[in-house]
Amino acid sequence: MLYKYIPSGVKFKRKIPRHIAIIMDGNGRWAKNKGKIRIFGHKAGFNAVKKTVKFAIQNKIEILTLYTFSTENWKRPKLEITSLLKLFLFALKNEMQHLNKYNIRLKVIGDITSFNKELQSYIDHAEKITSNNNGLILNIAANYGGKWDIVEGVKKIVTDVQKGFLCINQIKEEIFSQYLCTNSLLPVDLVIRTGGEKRISNFLLWQIAYSELYFTDVLWPDFNEFIFQNAINFFSSRKRRFGKIIKN
Question: Could you tell me if residue 228 is inside a domain?
Answer without folding.
Answer: yes
